[in-house]
Amino acid sequence: MSNEQIGPWRTAANGHLTKDANGDAKTDPLRWRLLDDRGRQTWHYLESDEELAKWPQSVADKYFLGLPTELPELPAAKSPLQGAANGLEFFSKLQLPPGNWGCEYGGPMFLLPGIIITYYVTNTPIPPEYATEIIRYLFARQNPDDGGWGLHIEGHSSVFGTTLNYVTLRLVGAGEDDPRMIKARGLLHKFGGAIYGPHWAKFWLSVLGVMEWDCVNPVPPELWLLPDWVPFAPWRWWIHIRQVYLPMSYLWSKKFTHPLTPLTRQLRQELYVQPYDSINFAAHRNSIHEADNYYPKTWLLNSLNSVLVNVWNPYLRLPSIVKRAEEWAWELIRMEDENTDYSGLAPVSNPMNMVACYLHDGPDSYSVRRHRERLHDYMWMKDEGMLVNGTNGVQVWDTAFITQSIVVAGFADDPKWRPMLTKALEFLEDHQLRENVPDQEKCYRQHRKGAWPFSNKDQGYTVSDCTAEGLRSTIQLQEIYKFPKLISDERLKDSVDCLLLMQNPSGGYSEYEITRGSKMLEWLNAAEVFGGIMISYDHPECTTASITALSLFSKFYPDYRADEIKVAKEKAVQFMKRIQRPDGSWYGSWGICFTYAAMFTLESLASVGETYETSDNSRRGCDFLLSKQMEDGGWGESYLSSETHIYTHHEKSQVVHTAWACLALMEAGYPHKEPLRKGMKLLMSRQQPNGEWLQEAIEGVFNQSCSILLPLTMNSASQGEKALANSDIPSAIRFFTQALIELPRAPSYYIKRATAHSRLKSADGGPDSPAALRDAEIALALARERGKRELILSAQMRRGVALFQLERYGDAAFVFKTIQDKTGGDQEPQDRSASVQSAMANAGAGGRTPKNGYEQELPIWILKTKGKLSKLEEGDEKATVTVAEYPSDIRIPTEKDLKKELEALDSGKKGVEESANSGTQGSTGSREKRDDGATDDYKAPVPSASPAAKMSSAPAQSNVRHEFYQSHDSVVVTLYAKGVPKESVDVDLKDDSISLQFPLSTGAEYAFNLDPLFAPIDTSASKVTVMSTKIEISLRKKTPGQKWSALEASATAPKLSSLQSAQDAAPSAKAPAAAAAAPVYPTSSRHGAKDWDKLASTLTGKKKSSKTKNKNATKPRGSDEAGNESDGADSVDSDAGGADPVDSFFKKLYANADPDTRRAMIKSFTESQGTALSTNWSEVEKGKVDVRPPSE
């Protein structure tokens, strides 16, 4: 780990670090504490035991960190009100000392890089606990399929996310040779390198010194000199864009670049696909990858940029103009810092302000020191590591809503909750903004006296709906429930004055300020990754919250500005009716999406007397919501609704959306109770025994394309990844099944579960290849729906591996050839030396682009398949091609099906539960045709009784797992089938075969046939025992002491009964006679020469049996002719999921070698055509290494 700018630990314990499941350093979660100082939230790591003893960990700390809260289980709720009471019982324990509630407000993946780059370029030591946990978080949020990062945690990988988070990891100490970094770098290179990032990425890279400013489109501070009447003057821009481009323009004009360091010099080589000095950065100002180009630059903006670059900058940009512009921009930066006590508006602009202060005021100035302190306000610690919140918290917003929920549920008059609500009211009182900022007009700030902010008063920005919710909560507590009157009438009236000033001429409300510019300013949107960001727009949530609050205020203060309030409400209501869509919906801006807007709108309409019974608008809004209710009674909406502006169902119902929809319907007075009962039932079913509801999908959104997450629990898929990495395959299968319950149509989870099924070890029953094939084909169907090429090819790869394991070599070859054709990978290793050279080359790739998992595996699996096919006799059915490129009639399991699978796993069964409602046709299952041509529900196929039927495929197809063991006298076979009636089992025992048939719980018949047996049995002493969970077959050997290496032998193979037990142990006459005479290769090992041929063969070869057996003999899954694991648990391993062990071995050997050793290995192996491998460069460099064929 690079310690270039990572600060030291403060005690000799060096952070009390341990390793997490990925092998990354991890701090002790029991030592983290959240300090809430009057609403300023910062995380602290207690290194000393003395600190630990003085500051106990709170329930809230444990909750945020994903630790057990140790709260008791509550009585199960029998009604929605009891469920609400249980929820409040849990939630009350999370209140923080000042009276507010805290939470994670993460999701965007472009916030953390700005802060870390700022730390680096201002020579600010990065706290070691931050560096440790940032590494963990970013790797936890890395896309498991392609290795990249996106705009937000649920977004596709992009240049923006991948470049900046890769750089961040390097700055906090991640090595460039970490396999995950290699994978990320490979994706970035596939994108074309960092030059294809959006404007903001290029800005930060230029500040860091790993890109030239010529690549950044101009942001001249002269814009700030434009008169206010100019239609595109910056004061008209949306506040966030204004505050981002203000310091950006100052730094662009100064061309500030951090001096080169060894690390940034190395990054210059890692981020691009060609040498840094050869890149024409100016030619890539407008280069952007399609993955990032959500809002393409307009022809007008491109034209203006061209004029600025080619005319203004070189000819008209006089030093006097530049000086004046920079001075005015700096003055605006200074006022922003002082007005927010250096906490800034948000974590995009504030780090830029700090860099500007560092440049203008100097490294040791007060402004830089205060910024350093304030950046901590944005950091948030959780179980996955450390992230950056979207603001310095959501303190006011959450506290206001929580008090309202308690009031609405009827708990506000319960003495039990009065102390908690009093503290909440005290917090709201403390954070109402009491005065306007100094020089309000000069710094373009909106009136704020009487307002409430989103987070706390230090940040101090007016937000319309936060003001409305703060006003409403205060009135509810003080006026309705007679809590202490902490906020005076005058201050409530100040709040109303503020709201009336924020209404736009349209009747709608924006969030921070009134709308100041035309929508045509979007033509100048330079961000590329966001849409709708250039001006303050009217938002349904802000408008309706204001209506509701003003209505409540007027009930208690009917004489204050009554006419103005009436007019404001009427204009706002007309605005909401005007923007209602023909289907009855409203598009939401700050939550997902149509559901969120409906909740606010229907409540606000009800506040002015328009309900389902009295208002067509309310009725249409309710009908829209009802049309989106899902089968289980809940609602679930995807973040894609925000991007596409079209309602998009989530893959499963969501607790939050269900609550929003039910609230909306109840507020609107919807008269029919059944939809509400179904919704409440779902909410109650998802509540945990301690009263909480777990985080599900993302709920928040901004700028149409970026999502925001509220408190999050441990991700099942992440746990599955860790289990898979640790070779805990059964756990991996369970976690991926849980992840699929959460996201039933996620192809990547099916791919990972297919990988896990293929990697099951012998102790767990061996690879479950039919289950792997089923998952791969489901993943393939889902990936085709999404049109995701990488997912399609990855699914095909898993499909091919599963077919190979099932000994369907013709089918496997067809699938591998399909992948090869799609990837252009027509070059395949012709011999083992090519494989080894390829492995070594990949291991030492450094800055080169690593291949995708399937591209690394493909040549090896093609060789394996060719080897198998070459040994088959002509006409062998194993060589037959029976599959198509895409299987047909794939049925995607529902959430209900997946829950059944999870129940089966929890009950001790291995593999996938083939319920009547799940399965695929073609490769892994079948459907019975009805007379009308339709298909019945899926039924597991009955295995064939013929010798050609493979025992390796029977168990998972019928979900009956079998295993066997043997003693000196007997072979015991166990079939794991629950609840089979004894009388329904048909048994036929013969001396050379056995046959069992019995019905499964699904209604299908199951046949278990072994014909011919590996060796004869004594039928009189053999027996079948039917138990509640299994069937046990005890076969008495006719020849005691004889070792069975499989259960079956081929019908055409000589029976082993003809051989004596002593002969079994005798050495084969064909054993290599010259094994000891293997060539001695040059070596630098202190242990002497290594026989590399022998070493490679132990990795890739199979032990030869002395027994004469037909190659078609049927055997249990995961066993070769000698009973050894092959093409299964061990060979289907590696990070990619299926690579050859020799590939993994030489990668590790080569990766850990020094440069001379690497050169020796490559030269010796290449020149000897794979017959010699030396690690001694002093010997190898002397001349050509001759071919040394191994002895016969």
Automatic annotation (TrEMBL):
SUPFAM superfamilies: HSP20-like chaperones (SSF49764), Terpenoid cyclases/Protein prenyltransferases (SSF48239), TPR-like (SSF48452). The keyword Ligase does not apply. One of its GO terms (biological process) is ergosterol biosynthetic process. InterPro entries: CS_dom, HSP20-like_chaperone, SGS_dom, SQ_cyclase_C, SQ_cyclase_N, Squalene_cyclase, Terpene_synthase_CS, Terpenoid_cyclase/PrenylTrfase. Residues 822-831, 926-939, 1179-1192 have a biased composition (Basic and acidic residues). Residues 1080-1192 form the SGS domain. This is lanosterol synthase.
